[in-house]
Amino acid sequence: MCCNKTCWLVVGSVVGGLLVILGGVLFPGGDLIISNTIKKEAVIEEGTIAYDNWIVPGSPVYRYFWIFHVTNPDAILTGGKPHLEQKGPYAYLVRHVKKSNVTQNRNDTVSFNQPNEAIFQRHLSIGPEEDTYTVLNLGVAAAPGIFPLLGMINDAIKNSNSSLFQVRSVKELLWGYRDPFLEKILGGILPDKTTGVFYPYNGTMDGPYTVYNGKNDISRVSIITTYKGSSNLSYWDDIYCDMINGTDAASFPPSVNKKKPLYFFSSEICRSIYGLFETEYMQKGIKLYRFVVPTAALASPVTNPENHCFCTDQVLSRNCTGAGVLDLRACQGGKPIFLSLPHFLYGSDFLLEQVSGLNPSKEEHETFVDVEPITGFTMHFAKRLQVNVMFQPTKQIDVLANITSEFVFPVLWLNETALIGDDSAKTFKSSVTVPMKALEIIRIVLICVGGVIFLACSITLCVRSCKKK
Description:
alpha+beta
């Protein structure tokens, strides 16, 4: 036992030094503990945080639609410039059904199907889904690019009292309606004469997908290995453009690096795409990295040579110098569907000049994902797309004979978005953020307190020793 001040000062110095050492050890040791915990909880298997948010999103995912109402349909038929008015939003709850046919495979992958189901949300919409607008007639506009017999198309348009534009409800336009023109032109060839921008959707499945579960290599968790049984696509006739890269953007592997692009695949755009780091910010007490789909991703091959294989129509793309649209005919059964960002954001000037009423805005129309960098979990995202239909002057078809030029005509745009809820944010912070902050505080306190005790006792010992001498 210590019986004098010198003994206590020696003990204080030793204790202070040990506290400093312990605090120092907790830096690599604590990081290892956190890393192992995250690796465990990020694996896609029952009982982990990642699985609970993977099997069905922990926060509601909504899809908002804005319809382009055509104010001058008759003038367009005689060569006038289309004028569009944006109407919306009309909101639907999506991605609220659990993944189906979930199978854990022996090669550290998990396979599943993603059910498609949309439920109308009146309280988030400007009106009921029965609201009607003047919109492009999808069947008539698409027919010349699908059916070779133009005279037959013209007769079917007349006999069905159809035109290039029609009045349809939001529900019909989105999810499908019986089309009188298709009934005439298809006759008994096909049993289903229903059409709609997203028909069929409700009750269908997207997939099957196979992704890494991260059990033995967490750096590959959620990365897609196959889609519909294949490790690549077959739409673009090019190894690069047909690659399936990254995840489905619902989550990413842990330890996200802001200096590297985040790759993700979307079956709706029939390709893989990427986001680049833009900013870091706090959301509900959680630090997030925002990654934004850049201009280069939809740029012309002249600007970005990597996009050369997405240029499939030399005429429409102005000899591949046009930017901002993606030709989906190869993956839409020949239907002249072209995707872009809303209001032709980042698109070539000629796309905007063809119509009036559009006003592209980076804040409103860009696509982004906000990722928690330590776990790789997506906490906020906005997937914004515009659906366009291409048609052009056709002398053999009366309703197309007098239009002035070929159009990539906007039909609607959507924003599929989700933000982590308050309860999910609290759970995440209590499981990840709070323990990390607590460990950081403990490390700093141990080093500071230990350092003060060590220095105080050591200096006092030196002073006392000097006075004795």
